[in-house]
Design brief:
454 residues; alpha/beta; Aspartate Aminotransferase, domain 1; seven-stranded mixed sheet; four-stranded mixed sheet; binds pyridoxal-5'-phosphate
Length: 454
């Protein structure tokens, strides 16, 4: 087996290759189409930012398993810890027998999540489960029933988290009715502000809308929590402006509402800090509850709810968690992942990736009219594609074609956004400069092919 860690994309077959095709045909027969399908390839092994499929094609992965692989594929130190743990025990359930990895990881997250107050952390298995538990914790503490979420939000696919989620197709269509008590405020999507509002005035506009929302939609005294992603993920990689977060915090403080920061996609160094809400903390703003998941354990299923101790302690014993919550192998892996991220300064790696990639994306924006907006925070970056820069008509079909052209050349990328017209980048933070350049060259080639601009 060759070393993939420093490899560059190399295609030896068309997609799918013959061996992949066989497995994909089996998938068609046996797996429901509702489980969505990305690139037509079947992975054999991965290292760093690269993977090889079963036909010998070598791909560069700018999707990172949807933001799960910030540390990259197959980190040798994480593999070692996982091997050691598998030889000791797989499972006991923290509700039955205690194990130290769970407890040590909780301690670590209580130290890392910003906030100069006592915190406590519990674990579950997925992002949606973390959000579900955060909402239960908020309701229990406040003894209130109502929740505020945002347009463009994504918080998961369970019934409650779908109710919080905004995008109807494919996520919500036909799966209702959903739990009640959920109110949707307008997210400050400044690129898509009303045409008559200048960029300069847009923050005042969105803040005024927020105040009207609490007059027209829900009484603030009835609201248990406002949940927001510090950078909307599925919504198209939209960072929440700090001025808007300040306003949210003010409203929460005035009315006894809890502020939940959903860091499921933005956490674990993605945005150039361990948590994106560290940018809030620099302005003296702190959330009450933080949910995190995805890159926490390098690919093993794990998620966390970290909250002010007095808030999370309001829930009775047995009221939160679940059988598999905080699995011993996953929590052991997470401790190692976080140790490596701190030791090797993954937050700085994200900042360097951001500089490298954003410079090139802005250059491309000058050349290709289809690129309406380039934005992001740290290495959580996206470009929004439009057929017309003035009307901002979403270029949804072109986005799909560009992804296909990238795939053909050995690059995995994802779309995002309510209108499906964003290309988002979640490359592992160990991607080398050479690999970044190769990936960006492929994106530019794909843009040329699809837009027919040279
Ligand atoms: C911000 C955010 N919250 C929650 C979720 C749901 O996480 P999961 O798919 O692990 O349930 C996601 C998934 O993309 C997310 O991006």
């Amino acid at each position: 087996m060759g070393n993939l860690r420093l490899a560059l994309p190399k295609m030896v077959t068309e997609l799918p290759g013959p061996k992949s095709k066989e497995i994909l045909d089996m998938r068609e027969e046996n797996v429901p189409g509702g489980v969505s399908y990305g690139t037509p390839t079947v992975i054999n092994r991965g290292e760093g930012a690269m993977f090889e499929d079963i036909d010998g094609n070598i791909f560069l992965d700018f999707a990172g398993g949807i933001g799960v692989l910030n540390i990259g594929y197959s980190n040798p130190e994480v593999i070692e810890v996982v091997k050691e743990q598998t030889e000791k025990f797989f499972h006991t359930s923290i509700n039955v027998v205690q194990y130290e990895q769970y407890i040590k990881l909780a301690k670590k997250l209580n130290e890392l999540v910003p906030g100069d107050y006592k915190k406590k952390t519990m674990f579950v298995n997925s992002g949606a489960e973390a959000v579900e538990n955060a909402i239960k914790i908020a309701k229990k503490f406040t003894k209130r029933s109502e929740l505020v979420t945002f347009t463009g939000a994504f918080h998961g696919r369970t019934a409650l988290t779908l109710a919080l989620t905004s995008k109807v197709k494919p996520y919500k269509f036909g799966f209702g009715p959903f739990p009640s008590g959920i109110h949707r405020a307008e997210f400050p999507y400044t690129y898509r502000r009303p045409k008559w509002i200048s960029e300069e005035d847009s923050m005042e506009y969105f803040k005024e809308k927020l105040h009207n929302f609490f007059l027209e939609e829900v009484t603030p005294e009835e609201v248990a929590a406002i949940i927001i992603e510090p950078v909307q993920g599925e919504g198209g990689f939209l960072p929440v402006p700090l001025e808007y977060v300040k306003e949210l915090r003010k409203i929460c403080d005035e009315h006894g509402i809890l502020l939940i920061c959903d860091e499921v996609q933005s956490g674990y160094c993605r945005t150039g800090k361990m948590f994106a809400c560290e940018y809030w903390a620099e302005e003296g703003i702190y959330p009450d509850i933080v949910t995190s998941a995805k890159s926490i354990a390098g690919g093993l299923p794990l998620s966390a709810v970290t909250a002010k101790a007095e808030i999370i302690e309001a829930s009775q014993a047995g009221g939160i968690g679940g059988t598999y919550s905080g699995n011993p192998i996953a929590t052991a892996a997470a401790l190692k992942v976080i140790e490596i991220m701190e030791r090797d300064n993954y937050a700085e790696k994200a900042q360097n990736i951001s500089k490298f990639v954003m410079t090139r994306l802005f250059e491309m924006q000058e050349k290709y009219d289809i690129i309406g907006d380039v934005r992001g925070l740290g290495a959580m970056m996206a470009m929004e594609l439009v057929t017309d820069k003035v009307t901002k008509e979403p270029a949804k079909e072109e986005t799909k074609l560009i992804i296909k052209e990238c795939n053909k050349r050995g690059l995995i990328v994802l779309d995002a956004g309510i209108r499906g017209n964003n290309l988002r980048f979640l490359m592992p933070l160990c991607t080398t400069d050479e690999q970044l350049k190769a990936g960006l060259d492929i994106i530019e080639e794909a843009l040329k092919v699809v837009t027919k601009v040279n």
